[in-house]
Structure formats: structure tokens, C-alpha cells
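Researcher: Good morning. I'm working through a list of sequences from a screen, and I'd like to move beyond sequence-only analysis. For each chain I'm collecting a predicted structure so we can compare shapes side by side. This is the next one on the list. No need for commentary yet; just the structure.
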Amino acid sequence: MENKRLQKIERLIQKDLGEIFLLQTKAMHGILVSVTKVRVSPDLGLAKAYLSVFPSEKGKEILDAINQNKKAIRFEMGQLQRNQLRKIPELAFFLDDSLDYLENIDKLLNKTKES
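Model: Good morning. C-alpha cells for this chain:
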């Protein structure tokens, strides 16, 4: 029972963070930030959000900017969720490099096909 509740909260946070980042990155042309996964602690005290940044070369720079604006992002998320959650969790952001990892595997496989 508790697991389903946490999953619903994770999906809600993922959707709201995605909307926030979509509005923030509209001003920056050529940059896309998507929320790939959100994990919430059982006490709803911490939400770990994994972000995918395109182009991946700017990932570290974008993540640093997001971490500097954590409080503002949490406030915006609180405004969106004020009627759904009693407690807005603290946010921790991490880069999700799974797409880069898959791209590297594809390059290696293509090299072996060519040789």
C-alpha cells in the first residue's frame, strides 16, 4: 500500500519538475532538460531527481545552475502541489548519464561490425 503511494508521489514530482524545467529552458535555445526518474524517501523528506540534459556537454554546467536555484525550484513545486502534498520534500539533483552510456555502447558495437 505504502509503495503505491510513494510511486504516485514520485510521478507527481517528476511531472511537475518537468513542467518547471520546460518553462525555464524555453529561454535557452538548443537546451533540453528532462526528468528521467524521481525517488522519494519513505518519510517524504528527500526527493532525488535524475536529469537528462541535451546536449550532454553542457550537463555539468546546467546541473550546477539547477543546484544553485534549488530553493526557487522547490518553491515553484510547492505552488503546484500545495493542494496535493502536505510536506514538500527537499530536492537533490543528479545527472542521468544512461543515454550517454547507451550511445557509447552503440559506437563500440558499430566499430566491431566494421572490423
